[in-house]
Design brief:
The longest helix is centred in the N-terminal third of the chain and has 50 residues, at about 1-50. This protein has five helices and no strands. It has a domain at about 25-120 and about 130-170. The chain is mainly alpha-helical. The chain has helices at about 1-50, 55-60, 65-100, 105-115, 130-170.
Length: about 240
Amino acid sequence: MKKLARTLVLALAVSSVVGCAKASDLAAKQQETVAYAKSYNARLAELFQRGKDYPARVDDLASELGGAEARTTLASASTIYRSMKVLVDSVPGQIEAAIKAGKPEELRKIATSLDVHTTPPNTAVAPPTDMVVELQRVMDNLNARLEDGYIESNAKLDAVEAWLYRMEGRHGAEPAPVAHPAPTGKPAEDDRGGEPDDKAEAPEAGTGSGSGPAPAPGAGAGSAAPPAAGSAAGSAAPR
């Protein structure tokens, strides 16, 4: 009789220890899941900041080729963002309510609503009995749902950004003309690498330019070109 009593006491003690461990695991898992959901607010803020001026920019160019598609893509990215925001804001409260009620089946419902994959029909699924196991299922599905949404939303913003870059480039200001530098007074070199002139040429009359024409092909820099037959350049005409 005494032996039986000791066995019952030991069993109760073990059960109590196991129960405390499970409660501790559940509290830690809940804290981890809630913290993860709330931490995603920072990533959602990044998405918002990135795309907040896209709607106005797309509207300005909506009549351009691809404008309708850009609008549709941007609207899809916005829908994904809002659905992610709803999850981040609502799931922690749903988890807390299910745990307070001690209903693992409620956690299973949350996990199922977050599942991004369709469970094949006639698939045997064990009934929910363990709170920690079901909470882990919630966290896994929440992580997959948020990560998929973040990647897809970013990809759509990439597509809109690329379209805006092309269209806004077409309507941008004309590039400023290249300013030619003023003459420095340094001797200019011949195009073929000849010696520099002894002094800079004076601008031709009426040109208004600070530099003279390039030397004719075959002419040496710094010397007069050979006189052509019958010309008066460089010598008197034959008598």
